[in-house]
Amino acid sequence: MWTSQDLRRSFISFFKSHNHTHIPSSPIVPNDTSLLFTNSGMVQFKKIFLSTETNTFFNSLKRACSIQRCLRAGGKHNDLEDVGKDTYHHTYFEMLGNWSFNDYFKEKAIDLAYQYLVSLNIEMKNIYVTYYQGTDKIPTDHETKTLWLKYLPPERILPFEKENFWEMGDTGPCGPCTEIHYDRIGNRFVPELVNKDDPTVIEIWNIVFIEFERQNDNSLIILKNKSIDTGMGMERVLSILNNTFSNYMTDLFLPLFSVITEFSPINYIYKDSDCLEDVGCRVLADHGRTISVCIKEIRPSNEGRGYVLRRVIRRAIRYMKKMELKEGFLCELVRVASKITGVSISEEEMGVIMGEEVLFSRSLDKGLGVLEKVMESSKNKGGVISGSDIFLLYDTYGFPSDLTEIICKENNMVCDLKGFNDLFKEQREITRVRSKKCLTGRISTGVIEQLGGVIPTDDSFKYRCNGLRGSVLFTIENGLLIPYKETQEYDNENSCKETPCNQVLSKETINNNLIGLISDKTPFFSESGGQVSDIGKFYFMQKNSMKIDECVYADFRFLKKIFKEFEDTHKHIGELKIIDVQKYGSVVVHFGYLKGKLSEDVFMVYDGCRRECIRKNHSGTHLLNYFLRRVLFEEERNNLKEEIGFSKEEEKDSIDLKEGNNFNEKKDGKKADKKEQICGEIRNEEKILNNLNTIAFQMGSEVSEEKLRFDFSSLKNLTLENLKKVEFFVNSVINEELKVEKNTVKIENVGLETIRMKEEDYPGLVRKIEVKSKYGLISELCGGTHVDNTKEIGKFRILSEGSVSFSVRRIIAVTGESALERERKATEVLNLVREGKSVDTSILKELPLFERLEIENFIKENERIKLEERKKIVNFHIKNIQESDEEFIIYEVKCEDLEKSVILIAAGLVKNKKSGVVWGKNEKEIFCSFRCENAVEKTEIFLKECLNVKVGGKGRIANGKALLTDNWNLKKFNELKI
């Protein structure tokens, strides 16, 4: 029996023997915004085909081969809905491929394909091949047909049109292709089944001859450099080698069916048939593999790649419930699948899967009940489920629209998806308007499209200076993009005299609307990467009146002075107070309120004091990100070591773990797997660094003047010990006074040690921020503004850490003077509570986390002590009441916390079956508690001479309080005695 590993080795060995360089698989998530996932082997070579790969290892490649992990579960290539229905479609699969880059072409490519198939002992009598049958614009590929005639009879060489012409996209490299199809049954002649989705005649290899380039006008030009791009489905070939009619009857899937049998209440055994149970088994086996490879790079979410993963998980959960599989099945399925796919999954990642299962199971149970009622009521409406009903299920019960559609199809009902999509878009627009971006929401889609034709703004000065001369190009007013003209003027009361578009804007409109301005260059930082934009001023000058250098840099501490000197020495005719800066494509738009006149010449100055605070917080965020990952990674590794009894000797030992010499694999296979994983990580620094980049995914951030906010993925509460470690390490690096290096580098030269956003599409040149510390290299890709030396950060303090949503946690922290001031305040408050004094608890949330927790503990202890003292006082007074023989007791209390004490002591009256009033007063207030007949009436008489009287109670119990006055007199109490 052929194993998947046998086939992998065979393929790589064959093509390496023909001078091909073996290139490892690229990640499932590509560095390409046009693709959701890596869906073919050519993705990592795309830049070579587009001739945009320069000065890299790839650029020197002539021949290559690889085994690429691929995913087709969303976007243009989407096999999700086909999975399970047949035996040869998958969402996750491995593609065997070989490439030639301006080296060999058609003849050699066909020869190599034939030779490799023969080396596998695949019977060529069961093979059909196809070639491109031309159209009016592109000639027939006779050459390919002729080349195949060396190996196959003409009746097995078939022409097709669009099926045999491959294109990367609407434009770009393209060319004819030849496909190799295999007849699983054999010993027959059935050319009519080729390209007909027949499970017995399947495509196994596609060889593309890239020789044209599609232009914008749809014409084709012949490429100077011609290339070969091939792809062969490993799962299909493996099934052929094992003489089975199904991809699922190989070692890539069979272990997963064993898991299903184990968790099935009836021990169901997969039969590879078309019955509903076997369809479910195929879905689960396929999706288990997909989840195992995705969870390392993606987290389930409600958009983009995360939503595709969530759909796959939810589809698996639905089939799991349909087959009534036992609890814990999905996690075990993914664990076994990870061994097949060769992916190491952490406990945290397993926790994410488990959490998705718990949450969706609840939604599924609720949603199914509602959907059943909707379907029942819709039977009288022609079997159509309305868009509003689908949206209700989605919006209220979290029930996915695609799942609604599937269930409706199973019940022969139709979904109004257009109606649902209209409601969904409407809801999304409402959310967008309510979001923070409503500030710039005045820019219409049309204006944004117009900005695409505007000259890009040179914003490179944002790293170099805080004052800059420039020219005004456009304004944005009333949602219109207007080329600059010297005709617009606003007086000191903001009333408009004339506008470039000949529209008079009312006083109210100017007061309540932002003006957008586009200049040729800017020193302002536009909001991006979680960092807020700069604010500042634009000064509009008379033509040629500005006598100042183009680019000015000044210490932020002296900026106010520079502002004043500039305003005194340069007579500007207008100014724009900038409150927000946004970037649309390559154009920077400054939003602000205009006073006076516009002019072409402008001097731009951002608020450097504010920028300095932002720089400190942003650099602090990088240090936090690095040490959070480092601390959590070390904890996870140490926990695994402890769990499996990992010894120091084993850590140092260099024994080959492939044979399992250091432990008894038969005794505990799971522990053996974990031990192998840990040993491999310890010996392989690159792997450790790569793991560091997959722990605590950054889920969002905000860097502002006041604070920094960092969201990250984690299922566990962070321990105080770990948080203290993180804070300690950050401050240690600050105190080391290390240089912060900022370099622009090529993306291909960025190593694994550099932290980057998982789904970010980085350009060819990126900005890398690095700090070389005794703890390691702190490196991250970032376009934000940063300090030049860590000492400038001053201090880093964590204010809070907590959960934001399922599997997402948030840390809020401060740096610089803000951190030091909060430390000082915390020390003051701590000293007060240590002395047992009361403090305003509303200020605690602004204090550093660890001092706040200490203060809260002191407050709790002080409250406990006060409570004990109050109990003693209350018991003392109750004893005095017990000893009184008066018929109606009037008892005065003198102590702290009078209101509570009076009520507690008065309870002693009832307990001892006495009537009377317990009262007490301080300088401002009086409190009383009656226990007698007509208690409310007597309380009102008691407080009659007071102000702001408040009485509550009924029957024999009443409490009251009021503000004391000079008229209140104790002598009046005698009339209350019974």
From TrEMBL:
Is Zinc among the key words of this record? Answer: yes
Q: Which SMART domains match?
A: tRNA_SAD (SM00863)
Per the annotation, which location comes first and is thus the protein's main one?
mitochondrion
Q: Report keywords, A-Z.
A: Aminoacyl-tRNA synthetase, ATP-binding, Cytoplasm, Ligase, Metal-binding, Mitochondrion, Nucleotide-binding, Protein biosynthesis, RNA-binding, tRNA-binding, Zinc
> What's its catalytic activity?
tRNA(Ala) + L-alanine + ATP = L-alanyl-tRNA(Ala) + AMP + diphosphate
Cited InterPro entries: aa-tRNA-synth_II/BPL/LPL, Ala-tRNA-lgiase_IIc, Ala-tRNA-ligase_IIc_anticod-bd, Ala-tRNA-synth_IIc_core, Ala-tRNA-synth_IIc_N, Ala-tRNA_ligase, Ala_tRNA_ligase_euk/bac, Thr/Ala-tRNA-synth_IIc_edit
In the UniProt record, does the keyword Zinc occur?
yes
Q: Which GO terms describe its cellular component?
A: mitochondrion
Note describing how the cofactor binds: Binds 1 zinc ion per subunit.
- All copies of the Alanyl-transfer RNA synthetases family profile domain together span 2-825
On assembly, the entry states:
Monomer.
Which family is annotated?
Belongs to the class-II aminoacyl-tRNA synthetase family. Alax-L subfamily.
- Provide the domain comment: Consists of three domains; the N-terminal catalytic domain, the editing domain and the C-terminal C-Ala domain. The editing domain removes incorrectly charged amino acids, while the C-Ala domain, along with tRNA(Ala), serves as a bridge to cooperatively bring together the editing and aminoacylation centers thus stimulating deacylation of misacylated tRNAs.
Please give the name of this protein: Alanine--tRNA ligase
Origin organism of this chain? Hamiltosporidium tvaerminnensis
